[in-house]
Amino acid sequence: MISEVTFSKKFTAFWNQTLPNSKNYIRLINAGLIERVYEPLTPARRKNNIALINVLSFELVKAVTTHQLTIDDVSKQNFFKSDEFKLIFDLSMTFLSRFSYGNNVDLPLERDEINEVLVLYKAIYTRYVANSKKIQVEPEFSGCGFINQANGDIACDKTLIELKSGERNFSVMDLRQILTYCTLNHFMKTPLLIEKIELFNPRMGIAYSEDIESFCQNVSALSSLELFTEIQKFITDINFVEEYGT
């Protein structure tokens, strides 16, 4: 079994065949189809702390959305010295410990890094949580074939949102990853109603959104049903395990 992230990063031959226009389309997205929401943040001085800052900001959004914290709690002057924040910090460090970059953080976080956490949290909260009629943080998608159960970032108002908070534009892997979520969702017993996809990078201040049908046509020349079926066939084919040893 593999994760949706591994699937998105590898299996290049399959992806190139199934999404023949993806490389050209991501260039078009980054060149002019993106929405420039605001100016990017100042480049981070300690690059090795970016992942932690990103996770902390998302955990704050999740805590407020699930009513573990209130907006007023996060706005308090000493919140980042509170027991509530320490709990979120510990959870974030535990999550990062599963990955190699989790061992490279420099602590304690400096004042400008704490400010980044707050800025990213506010950007995500304002764009999605504040005015959404229905929102689900970390929507769960059942596993399919050789892909494990997975969690997306945010689903709200019939839109599936994938957050990418690095100091970069969007990539082909981002397109593959959100398509993988859409495929898993499509074949679930009780799928979410997803009509649009969106990529949002709060660090760079950029977003890209498109309805599912147009997106699938643009990257593959297939309808959403045809594309999801092609992906599903690949990850459930017995030759997959024979060739890749999962």
Description:
Helix content is 50%, strand content 12%. The chain contains eleven helices and eight strands. The protein has a six-stranded mixed β-sheet, with helices on both faces. The protein has a two-stranded antiparallel ribbon with strand order 3-4. The chain is globular. The mean pLDDT is 94.
Question: What's the short story on this structure?
Answer:
With 246 residues, the protein is of the alpha+beta class.
Which helices and strands, and how do they pair?
Elements: H1 4-9, H2 12-18, H3 22-33, E1 35-36, H4 50-65, H5 71-75, H6 83-96, H7 111-129, E2 135-137, E3 140-141, E4 150-151, E5 154-156, E6 159-163, H8 172-186, E7 196-201, E8 206-211, H9 212-220, H10 224-236, H11 238-244
Parallel strand pairs: 6-7
Antiparallel strand pairs: 1-8, 2-5, 3-4, 5-6, 7-8
Q: Spans of 5+ residues with little confidence (pLDDT < 50)?
A: none
Shape: globular
pLDDT average, as an integer? 94
Q: Specify Rg, calculated over alpha carbons.
A: 19 Å
For the report, how would you describe the main beta sheet?
Answer: 6 strands, mixed
Q: What sequence of helices (H) and strands (E) makes up the elements?
A: HHHEHHHHEEEEEHEEHHH
Counted by DSSP, the helix tally is 11
Structural class: alpha+beta
Q: How are the strands of the largest sheet arranged? A: 1-8-7-6-5-2
Q: Helix share of residues? A: 40-55%
Classify the beta-strand content into a percent band: 5-15%
Give me the count of strands: 8
Report how far apart the termini are. Answer: 5 Å
